[in-house]
Amino acid sequence: MSDPTPRLLLVEDDAHIRRFVRLALEAEQMEVHEAPTLRAGLIDAGTRRPDLVVLDLGLPDGDGVAFIRDLRAWSQIPVIVLSARTAEAEKIAALDAGADDYLTKPFGTGELLARVRAQLRRRAQGATDQPITAFGDVVLDQTRRVVERAGQPVHLTPIEYRLLAHLAAHPDRVLTHRQLLHAVWGPTHAEDTHYLRVHMANLRKKIEHDPSQARHLVTETGVGYRFVP
């Protein structure tokens, strides 16, 4: 039996952009519902129960960040922000509110579709707290709390292990510096980004084949990091 058709909700006030994005998604055999306002988007998110939301931030009746906060009070549906706002502070605000990814306008159709597929794949895999995560030649076994690379043990510090485990629990999702610091170090270290940079650099040396061209522990410049399985 074939997989069910992915159901997406597009919250965007610009009719031309809505049509462009809808046609691109429908060409990939996805079902798309449109909402031109924040209020209509929240209603559709509750009634249609989409598999993913593509969200503009500049809506006529409110800010998209408010949409994300409201949605996150009752749902973990993946949200991809599609916005003309390019400032790092704007991206961080959306991601801290609970967005899963952020794509700035203008954007390429191929990149949008790749981001959508990644989030749908993550959702289809179900719970992200699987005890074993394999990527490249690395295996993270959270039951035994061990990491192996090419069959050999990798010796991580407790901080490095917690950092890798937290990133691996959120594949294909951008995690901000604040989110990672809060999760790994605790709320009193939410501004200590230098801690994060040092430990991430050390972790890459142990995990990546080429730490300067990371494939799995990817930097989102000025925002945070993304784990790519």
Automatic annotation (TrEMBL):
Gene3D superfamilies from the UniProt entry: 3.40.50.2300, 6.10.250.690, Winged helix-like DNA-binding domain superfamily/Winged helix DNA-binding domain
> Which sections of the sequence are annotated for DNA binding?
130-229
Task: Give GO cellular component annotations, separated by semicolons.
Answer: cytosol; protein-DNA complex
Q: What keywords are annotated for this sequence in UniProt?
A: Cytoplasm, DNA-binding, Phosphoprotein, Transcription, Transcription regulation, Two-component regulatory system
Where does the record place a coiled coil? none
- Keyword DNA-binding in annotation: yes
Q: Does the keyword RNA-binding apply?
A: no
OmpR/PhoB-type domain spans which residues?
A: 130-229
Compartments where found: Cytoplasm
The residue ranges of the Response regulatory domain are 7-120
Pfam families (alphabetical): Response_reg, Trans_reg_C
Primary subcellular site in the record, as a coarse category: cytoplasm
For this chain's UniProt record, which GO biological process terms are given?
A: positive regulation of DNA-templated transcription
**Under what name is this protein listed?**
Two-component system response regulator KdpE
Species of the source: Aquabacterium soli
Question: Gene behind this chain?
Answer: kdpE
